[in-house]
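$ ./design --mode recover --in tokens.txt
reading tokens...
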């Protein structure tokens, strides 16, 4: 698990972290909630999701991802082969357990 909640993380840092996590076979949960991860960081998260197979939980609440960054994360989920999609205030895609993303600052 990696908990980076509220640590002042910006998009450039998120891009570096996502690159490393994409090749980490044991990472199961990442929390980057309450940071300043913008659209570029969202694109990095989306790219990470396409490559990682072990991640079960991703929390990125309260980040200014914007519509482009939010869409990039969703596209990363869909491209990674998750086959269940549910919408109930957040996106939940079923993998081995569940993969959860909540956006509340897309503008």
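writing sequence...
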């Amino acid at each position: 698990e990696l908990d980076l909640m509220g640590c002042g993380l910006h998009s450039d840092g998120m891009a570096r972290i996502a690159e490393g996590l994409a090749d980490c076979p044991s990472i199961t949960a990442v929390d980057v909630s309450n940071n300043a991860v913008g659209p570029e960081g969202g694109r990095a998260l989306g790219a990470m999701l396409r490559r990682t197979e072990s991640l079960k939980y991703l929390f990125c609440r309260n980040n200014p991802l914007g519509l482009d960054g939010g869409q990039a994360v969703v596209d990363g989920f869909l491209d990674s082969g998750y086959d269940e999609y549910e919408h109930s205030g957040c996106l939940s895609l079923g993998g081995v357990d569940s993969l959860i993303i909540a956006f509340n600052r897309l503008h």
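exit 0
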